[in-house]
Amino acid sequence: MKPRITGRSMKTSSLIADAEFVLELPKAELHLHIEGSLEPEHMLSLATKHGIKLPYKTLDDIRAAYQFDDLQSFLDLYYLGAGVLMDEQDFYDLMWRYLCRCREENILHTEMMFDPQTHTGRGIAFETVINGFTRAMGDAKTEWHQSSGLIMCFLRHLAEEEALQTLEEAMPYKDKILAVGLDSAEVGHPPEKFQRVFSRAAEAGFLRVAHAGEEGPAQYIRDALSLLDVQRIDHGVRCVDDPSLVDELARTKVPLTVCPLSNVRLCVYDDMKQHPILELLEKGCRVTVNSDDPSYFGGYLCDNFNALAKSLGMTEQQAVQLARNSFVASFLPEEVKQKFLSLL
Ligand code: HPA
Ligand code: ZN
């Protein structure tokens, strides 16, 4: 089946982007935790399959639990939920479902994060995780030319030594991994804790990204850039606390993979109306829109674009610029970027 790439013409105007416009816009997603796409129905069915006891009996119990005060309150449930993923087919199915969603939402390219330590720490082999994911990615490529890559994240609440071990474990699968990243609890786990890990990853030829400035201070963004030598910052919204950093980001065009619904659900902002993404866009920062953990935060990529239209009055022109940024900020080879950009 072919992906949907054409439809209503993509002429830019000052109209507010509506849902149809957003759906038909060719897009890339660069900040998506694949474990965060585990839908409640899938979680319950895997718990039954493996005889795992969860603190929820029904879908309503799960939905009721998804009320978060901050990043940590989310992470506690996110790691619990990921505990139902046991065999290669589970990882395949999780990946397959998200890639089908990409096809439905006209996400032509996706760079997805995964957390191997969440699984290896429970005795699941690295090989099981990566083989399940990459087999689904291969099938989606064959079936509808879905373009995708994997970003292996280190859990920053764990020790540097464990991240180094994970990097070693990943070496035989280097060709299947596009980049390394850094996620989990940010405050108290600054970029400098992983400086040696990232320098070793760079020596091994991995591209690099890091969550910074989600809950942590603007200084963590500066440190991720200078100490970890990352090519992109995940979230990065706290840069607004440091106007000279915003100027620097606008000048250097280091991409920020921003996740609006996530930021509201994790109380980084009380209301979407306070979200700074469009201000950053207008200042010339290379911001992109992403869903982070869509099954936990109430929406996939189109829902995030639609929330910006509804609460911030995002225009069609701004939506096109955000979609353009998503391809430019990707790790695709230049000629492939150009091919996707020509569709806009
Ligand atoms: N922040 C940090 N770690 C994460 C997130 C996030 O939003 N989602 C999954 N792991
Ligand atoms: Zn994230």
What does this structure look like?
- This protein has 344 residues and is of the alpha/beta class.
- It has a single domain (19-342), classed as TIM Barrel (Alpha-Beta Barrel), CATH 3.20.20.140.
- The protein is 49% helix and 13% strand.
- It contains 17 helices and eight strands.
- An eight-stranded parallel beta sheet has the order 1-2-3-4-5-6-7-8.
- Helix 5 (88-105) packs parallel to helix 7 (126-144) and helix 8 (160-170) runs parallel beside helix 9.
- The longest helix has 19 residues, at 126-144.
- The protein starts with 18 loop residues before the first helix and ends with a helix.
- The site of zinc ion (ZN) has 6 residues, from strand 1.
Can you give me a brief rundown of this structure?
This protein has 344 residues and is an alpha/beta fold. The protein has helices at residues 19-24, 40-50, 59-65, 71-82, 88-105, 116-120, 126-144, 160-170, 195-203, 218-227, 243-252, 260-265, 277-282, 294-297, 301-312, 316-328, 334-341; strands at 27-33, 107-114, 147-155, 179-183, 207-212, 232-235, 256-258, 287-289. An eight-stranded parallel β-sheet has the order 1-2-3-4-5-6-7-8.
